[in-house]
Design goal:
This protein is of the alpha/beta class and 222 residues long. The chain is globular. It has helices at 7-14, 18-25, 29-38, 56-64, 77-87, 125-138, 155-171, 188-197; strands spanning 46-50, 69-74, 94-98, 111-117, 139-152, 186-187, 202-209, 212-218. Strands 1, 2, 3, 4, 5, 6, 7 and 8 form an 8-stranded mixed sheet that branches. α3 (29-38) packs parallel to α4.
Length: 222
């Protein structure tokens, strides 16, 4: 049976080549450009980035909102080091947190924008629903969850991916596939349904690419 890579180890080993992989090999410049366009403006924007990686999305966000206060969370120290080098030490409103966002506390109504790109496709629907509800609670009224990730075209392929993921989980005696690097993306319809069930009254698909999508989930202002 092949050895599974622990999540932090997987990304630590790939931090230096991550940007080339995402932008050049996968051609995701349009994806990150769209993330930048969908970022709300405004003075003193409070941002939480879950699974920030090397900061490809934050580079664009900070150009639009240079005074934004950003908390950037990632389980990989290598990724955070690469992000720090990208954005420079002069970003005094940037707080880097090496942690699992699945376990870290999320204060109520603490952020205007929660952002996550290419990070959540390692979790089951029930795990995602729990996290989406916590994201809803940590957003201020009128706040936005901007979420881009891998998606599958239909429920049949989603079910196949979930069955394979469950087989791997049992074979390796894992409590959750989040412990290791295994992709189990969901369909667009399932993602929209989970976000609505988490409490977001308005969920739109703002961008679609090859096996990827960007979702905008807005919290009511009142």
């Amino acid at each position: 049976m092949p050895e599974m890579e622990r999540m932090a180890d997987f990304f630590d080993r790939r931090a230096e080549e991550y940007d080339v992989h995402m932008l050049d090999e996968l051609g995701l410049e349009p994806f990150y450009a769209e993330i930048g366009d969908l970022t709300p403006g405004g003075k003193g924007l409070r941002v939480l980035d879950l699974g920030c990686g090397t900061g490809l999305e934050l580079e664009r966000l900070l150009k639009k909102n240079p005074d934004a206060a950003v908390t950037a969370v990632d389980i990989s120290g290598g990724m955070l080091d690469r992000l720090q080098r990208r954005l420079g030490e002069g970003r005094n409103r940037l707080t880097l947190v090496q942690a699992s966002y699945w376990e870290m506390p999320l204060p109520a109504e603490a952020y205007d924008l929660v952002l996550s790109t290419y990070s959540l496709h390692h979790a089951s629907p029930s795990e995602k629903l729990t996290l989406y509800r916590r994201i809803y609670e940590t957003l201020a009224k009128g706040g936005r969850f901007l979420y881009g990730d891998y998606v599958l075209p239909d429920y049949a392929q989603e079910e196949e991916a979930r069955r394979e993921g469950e087989r791997i989980r049992k074979a390796h005696g894992l409590r959750s596939l989040r412990e290791v690097h295994v992709d189990i993306p969901l369909s667009m319809e399932t993602e929209r349904d989970l976000l609505r069930r988490a409490g977001f009254p308005r969920v739109t698909t703002a961008w679609e690419g090859v096996n990827a999508a960007i979702f905008v989930a807005d919290k009511a202002a009142l």
